[in-house]
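Below is how a single chain appears once it has passed through the pipeline. First comes the sequence as given, then the structure the pipeline wrote out for it. We keep one example in the README because the format questions we get most often are answered faster by looking than by reading.
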Amino acid sequence: MKSTFIKLHLSVLLAGATGLFGKLITLNEGLLVWYRLMFTALLFLLILFVSGKVPRVTWKGFLRIALVGSLLALHWIFFYGSIKASNVSVGVVCFSLVGFLQLCWSLFY
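Resulting structure:
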């Protein structure tokens, strides 16, 4: 139970810090997400090459990965756009409501 609360507080801290850094960085949301995803992809590829676990991906699998990546990028663009349009607290609250809304959706449908 104690480790669950620690994980919860850590996730809230990370979400708040993400919003705060998004507000402080002067790039527009498109460039911010582009550099963030580029840095993440390069770091992920480096980890895969060092571990020697580079998977082979079919064309269909590549298209699925590209679709999920595009949706994720669009999510971050809207998240940083909402923070730049209003403030950090509104953006983080909306970001945190996604889990609650998914829970409500799963209970009723």
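The chain has a mean pLDDT of 83.

See the next section for the split statistics.
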